[in-house]
Design goal:
about 60 residues, mainly alpha
Amino acid sequence: MSHAPVHEPAALSPPDPGTLSTEIQRVLTALADVEACYENDRECLKGWSGPEAIRVRLVEQLVS
């Protein structure tokens, strides 16, 4: 039975604080965009004039 070679993981160097801060800001901006879309969708569903069963299903999809 042959064995696959085992590779040692590469040593990780500490992240550059400037790069890390930039990446954190990018992720926070993306999360804010997701939250804004979610809130907009919720507001639209509050004013839904269609069938209640469909509105309920859409709300359930929104929160899952």
